[in-house]
Batch of 4 targets.
Target 1
Amino acid sequence: MTRDDLPRIPLLINGEFVQSRTTEWRDVINPATQQRLARVPMATPEEVEAAIAAAREAFKTWRKTPIGQRARIFLKYQQLIRDNIKSLAATLTAEQGKTLADAEGDVFRGLEVVEHAAGIGLLQMGERAHNVAGGVDTYTLLQPLGVCAGITPFNFPAMIPLWMFPMAIACGNTFVLKPSEQDPMVTMRLVELALEAGIPKGVLNVVHGGEPVVNALCDHADIKAVSFVGSTRVGTLVHDRATRAGKRVQCMMGAKNHAIVLPDAHKDQTLNALAGAAFGAAGQRCMAVSVAVLVGAARDWLPDLVEKARGLSVGAGDSATTDVGPLISCAARDRVEALIARGVEEGATLALDGRLPPLSGQLKEGNFVGPTIFSGVKPGMTIYDQEIFGPVLCVAEAATLDEAIALINANPNGNGTALFTQSGAAARRFEDEIDVGQVGINVPIPVPVPMFSFTGSRASKLGDLGPYGRQVVLFYTQTKTVTARWFDDASTGGVNTTISLK
């Protein structure tokens, strides 16, 4: 298929899918084969302005929509997603590369948030205190902010958009979404289903683009809140720029997630968990385990871990036998391979080299790196200090649990961590003393279910309220406190010049 024959990804403005008038387009590439799948526009400033204007106008009526009516839209939306989960996963795998099973998981974890949005009636309740003074009641209202924006990454093109716009819209806001330009097709299909579920025109809008579009969303006076998931570099820029413009901002950013293994852990279950969490999705998860800290006698488990990783199959995500798919782009592959070479240069031991995995046919053109393991890794090495975002596991050693906890707490990131043990006392000490926002006990990727909130911390997060759960309702609403007194008769009891309520 020639470039001119490729499908063109539309924008969504005021309830209509429209073709961009831009002169700048980028190809959407299947990372397993380099096949061009579609073309995505870099939206013009006028198109971004039109999307925001549509959201601003729609907010006037959407904010007054009864809460039950909003909830029913998301009840229908979750069923539409459920009915289409196989086709959504197939699209996701084609453009992003992860296995079909992992792609279904991507969609499902977003679906859980949509289900949570359908319960907005309970989530958006305020508080009330009766008779706080003579005849005086005080109560709070959680009211929508206005137009909100979301900027989402390539690695979860279904889940993370579904973290954002359903909760924002359920709270009574309108939304402008900017998906990753690298894999926007599954996101756009989810947007189509959202309209089918009954989201009115202008309530959800989509623009595509790079840095100029991101900057426009951060700067625009009509946007009241920005939610971002992506790299630390970009997230820091988004947070600083949008905050200066007076917006609420939440940025979930980079990580270096450690898993501590104590020698009393269940060995086979632990090795399976480490391999899955390190190499699943080709390591392209902000919650991937990228450092295993083997404590005491668990240091002897390294050969077994290497053999477990060596047994994983590398290939296209649409193959039922594939465990590890491709990286998102040629540039991502080149970066990961360069970091592997740097690790060797800096003295780490390459226990398993995943570069140039043996593949045939079209897959030779794909962005593949197989499972890779370094041992003898220490702080100060580039492979330890940087987020590799590939299928590379660094193995460090510690003599005791306390030494391992100190290692993790010295790292600037705080997205996720895990401990593998059968000791309740060790687990309790770990969860109490570790300075990381999300903790797993024998759970390698402790992303909470939607009743709770995503709570990464330190350098992994900017902004004090996380995505989904109760925290995101507070993020997407303004608390208004009302103090009211109703008199039984016309008597005022005289002039009160004090601040007290009597």
Target 2
Amino acid sequence: MDQHKKSNARRIFVNIVIVLALSYIITVTFFVVHQHQLAVLQSDIVRRLEARVEKLENNDFAAQKKERDSVGEADRVMEGKSARLKAKLAVPDLSRGRDKRQFEGYCPCLQGPKGDAGPPGRRGKKGKRGHKGDQGPAGPEGPKGEPGINGEPGIKGTQGEQGPKGPKGLNGINGTQGPAGPPGAAGVKGDRGEVGIQGPKGNPGPPGASMSESIQLVGDGQKIQNPRIHRISNWDERHREGSIEYHPSTGFIEVKRKGYYFIYSQMYYYDGSTVLMGHHTYINHDKVMESAGSVISSQRKYNTKYHGGVFLLQENDTISVHIPYTTRYYMDSEGSFFGAFLLHRID
């Protein structure tokens, strides 16, 4: 079945490659033909333009030749007319340059080319700046006036004489003290009560029973693969107090006192080959707690699951952890642990 699918896939791939190659060849052929047509069209346009330019150049050459012939004939005619006109209008006292300027406008012959402009004249020197007048000397400061004379202080008045001191008054006379009152009579003292007889001391009661029942198990550090049984027994005893016991050969925790216990467990997984990961906690042969989750991929396969709860346990009940889905787990001492402790004892 797999071989048939592979052959179909190969055939489809070859067909796709052939179609793409044919499309590429057709596209390139169309592009080359289109470029050839454009080149032929442009060559035809260039030939037409060259023929038109050649025709225009021939017409222009013939027109210039005809114009030169006609101009030469006209020059000869106009030169004769100009000579006759100058003879009639000649003025002896005008300069030759003025005659030329005055009658140049009447000559119908063509004007000669304009001569080049002469070089610009030199710029005159800048005149010197005039001297600035000297500043006159400052005038002398006027004399300072004399300070005025301070006035004389006034005469201090005389102090008046102190009057005589008056006579001292007489001290008052203290009054006489009154006689003391008679003392009060003393109260009557009551009779003293009798002392009670102390009862006998009771016997001390029996010592109370210890309420400390707890155990903490941690993973032994091994990586387990494909276990033969699903009950975990790879535990190391980290803490134990009271009569509670752990059986390493079976993985059971056994309680010896009836009461309410808090039970907890956590497992560390690294299995990416299964769909689910999880673990169960059992009391005797009954499942009481469960944790489960989905495996993301073979690369993201590491995870931990924890659960805990309070349960009433009878004397000699057992607690254990089971793995229902995964086949690989890591008994790391920080990531995998299991335990229980007594909350309330029932006698």
Target 3
Amino acid sequence: MIRVAAVTENNEKITDIEISEVNFSAYKWWWIDFSEPTEEEIKQLDTSLHFHPLAIEDCIHSLQRPKLDYYDEFSFFVTHAVGAKELEQKEIDFFIGENYVVTFHHWDSAEINQVWSRLLKQEDINEWDEYRIFYEVMDKVVDNFFPIVYHLEDEINEVEENPGDKPMDVLLDHLFDLRHQLLRMRHTINPIRDLFYRMLSSHRLEGIRERREYFADIYDHLMKLSEMVASNREITNDIRDNFISINSYQQNKVIQVLTVITSIFAPLTFIAGIYGMNFVHMPELEWRYGYHASLAVMTLLTIAMILWFKKKGWFG
């Protein structure tokens, strides 16, 4: 789907036009949005808008790394949004020229839909232009990162506190899944952060210099998000190490108990083994109290070894 919004010199909004019918020079500025475009609609990037083939190729072959490319008549931006459920990266491309902005995305973008609806409802659009559109969309994209990161943070706290008293193997599986999700968020947020740093440092983007405080605010949000993701990954490292330490401690305790039991039964097995042999000439075999004596010796050995192990702290 291709939708067009144009603003006349008298600040009148026009939306009932086709891309092939747009007289671009007749408008103050215009916005064309390619939402889930077909192959025929994608061709309009070349036939109607005459964008550079490399930029068009970057649009077709997603996902590109967030970046900024300068061309003779426009600047090309590649950015990413994230699906709230799957945390899947979704590319949004911007072509920004002197009096226009073109957005391109292979999916239905809620952020762009919100800005589009707001533009159409806005009565006074004197302050709107191509970079205002870019700012509004990216502000929505970055703001939508926060609930995702906060949710992951809550999940990590729940794993750490374990209110449901879940088994350790279940908690570790969930923890590793959370670490994977944090990694995906880091791979989304950090490149966009670097992109905004480059934008703010550029001397060729007049529209961004005019709204530097707004784009700097988005950059600050990205810095905060990046720090939150890094901090939460460190927390998951600590939780993982604690789980592994606890698991090793429990295994050592089990091994210690088994060692004590083995040590106690070793001499008992030795005595039973000796008197289980079938030699004829064994003096104790014909002794009337031999059976009771052997049991008494085994009992005394067991008690003595238990007391000795307890004194050594093997049961603590």
Target 4
Amino acid sequence: MLKLIKKFWHWFRSPSRIAVGVLITLSFIAGIVFWGGFNTALEHTNTEEFCSSCHMNDVVPEYRQSVHYVNRTGVKAICADCHLPHEFIPKWVRKIKAATEVYAHITGKVDTKEKFEAARLEMAEREWARMKANNSQECRNCHNFDAMDFTLQKGVAEKMHTMAIKDGKTCIDCHKGIAHHLPNMKDVKSGFLPTEKAE
């Protein structure tokens, strides 16, 4: 056994070209397998099923009654479409921040419907601020002023979208509560009137 260890150590300290090639090839294959497995696991955390595992008793039922889940065109937006940036770096930043939200659920801060409702305004304001800061990028991945035909919109929508462009507003300025119930807003002082339903 000692002889075998010495032989391995000698090979390790002065490997042949074949050994270096094998080592590089195995490292490359291991890297691909690791990245593939890691990416698959990460993508699983973007699914509606994963989000539902914690949110089935609070926001999932209300989301399933929204226009983002069921609508006349059959186009569906899942949780990650609205709550996760598509770009690589922003996606990773958001995933890291989301780890604190998972921690809050695991440690019991928002693990019941009652606790969730008590924290809903704080969580909503944090999400609205994030979306305001990135110009509602997740909304704009599907909805974009440049692609809208205002003549096909209802009169009030056409008027509000025209005003939003003129005033430099972003989607979340008006469309709070589009996929989830609004928190209790009676003590909130703001210059907007949030909408619950919009198309």
